[in-house]
Specification:
Elements (H helix, E strand, L loop, with lengths): L7 E2 L5 E2 L3 E3 L15 H10 L5 E3 L3 E2 L11 E2 L6 H11 L5 E7 L16 E2 L14 E2 L2 H21 L3 E6 L4 H6 L14 H4 L1 H17 L5 E6 L11 H11 L6 E4 L18 H9 L5 E4 L5 H7 L5 E4 L1 H5 L3 H6 L10 E2 L3 H4 L3 H10 L4 E2 L1
Parallel strand pairs: 3-4, 3-14, 4-7, 5-6, 5-7, 7-10, 8-9, 10-11, 11-12, 12-13, 13-14, 15-16
Antiparallel strand pairs: 1-2
């Protein structure tokens, strides 16, 4: 079994000092125009140095890909100075900095986009209250988005990051192309399962080509995915195993599953004999490293997750206790902070956006 203090060297040469990764979490702390703030730099600076890597909150690759206010931008060269500060802030004590890049697709609204219509694979609204009907992307626009991901990767390289993570999870645009709910197209970009994979295939090829042609050493590319959708029709777990199989053959450095609980069982009755994570790890079959995630709070959680993954992504525990990693590694689990109150917000540099996430995801940990 993998142990959490083991080092790991990716095929592109980057070496990571342990198996703990800070999960990408929305901060809503950037300026209105996507430029990073001092508060956001301090937020990451407080939580770096102990974990092997930090994956940032999502950075949008196009202006019309902005998902929410306070989101980091990477769609223009003007962001490079701020992104350079972010990369340098994270890269303390040999922690690696990975920039998550994404496009919100239909999971935003025209108010966030300053009056512009939202876009997606097809003109189908999301199944959520107040969802707007998106504009179906044209072939030219699809190719422009792929170019935007490639350009975002170039900026991440220029800014000094150690890698990018393609955000293909959590119902955002990349997942929307793979989903039969949001993708009703009848051209090369939709229809069959194989055609719904085309956008992902071209996007991954484009991003990895940028890295390999740049000549940079030790810069990695990861891909994050969600295992199931509850819409009908939606992504089934069988669809995801097809996706995982395809991605495991791509020139990627890791896959990163998105789960709210690391030991979750599939809703598909054909896959209930073991966890989603175990099924995915089995499908990968040692072809590519996998990051497991989902409410990891204790050393026991870490060790159980590492049975079926090569890395563990930790989110909420690091929000409450930025020194969670060292306490886990040094056998000081009894010293880990488990609760917090509004009085801790300033100390822990938790903005209102992050606090809202904590209120929704773990209200039992908040002291009124």
């Amino acid at each position: 079994m993998t142990t959490l203090t083991e080092t790991f060297k990716f095929k592109r040469g980057l070496e990571i000092k342990n198996r703990i990764v800070m999960a990408p979490m929305t901060t809503k702390m950037s300026f209105f125009d996507g430029v990073i703030t001092t508060d956001e730099l301090n937020y990451y600076g407080l939580r770096t140095g102990e974990v092997g890597a930090i994956i940032t909150a999502a950075a949008n690759v196009q202006a019309n890909g902005k998902g929410w206010e306070g989101e980091l931008g990477v769609y223009d060269d003007k962001f490079i100075p701020g992104l350079s500060k972010l990369a340098a802030t994270i890269k303390q004590n040999d922690t690696k900095a990975i920039l998550q890049i994404f496009h919100g697709g239909r999971m935003t609204d025209s108010k966030v986009l300053r009056g512009e219509q939202v876009v997606s694979a097809s003109a189908i609204a999301a199944e959520r209250e107040g969802a707007e009907i998106p504009k179906e992307l044209t072939e030219i626009e699809i190719l422009e988005i792929i170019e935007s991901f490639k350009n975002a990767t170039k900026r991440a390289i220029q800014a000094g990051f150690d890698g990018v993570e393609i955000h293909g999870a959590n119902t955002y645009l990349i997942q929307q192309f793979f989903s039969p709910h949001s993708n009703r197209r009848e051209d090369k970009w939709g229809g069959t399962l194989e055609k719904r994979f085309n956008f992902i295939n071209e996007l991954v090829n484009g991003v990895t080509d940028v890295v390999d042609q740049s000549g940079i050493q030790g810069f990695i590319v990861g891909y994050r995915f969600s295992p199931e959708e509850y819409e009908v029709p939606g992504i089934s777990f069988s669809d995801t195993l097809y996706l995982v199989d395809k991605l495991s053959e791509k020139p990627l450095d890791y896959l990163h599953i998105s789960l709210n609980q690391y030991d979750r069982i599939s809703s598909n009755h054909s896959f209930v004999e073991k966890t989603i994570l175990a099924h995915v790890h089995e499908k990968i079959n040692n072809r590519i490293p996998l990051i497991g995630v989902g409410n990891i709070q204790t050393l026991a959680d870490v060790n159980e997750t590492l049975l079926y993954s090569e890395f563990v992504a930790v989110g909420r525990a690091l929000l409450i206790d930025p020194h969670w990693t060292n306490k886990i590694i040094n056998g000081q689990e009894h010293l880990i902070r488990r609760t917090l109150s509004h009085y801790n917000q300033e100390e822990l540099i938790i903005g209102n956006g992050v606090w809202g996430f904590l209120e929704q995801m773990m209200p039992e940990r908040l002291i009124k």
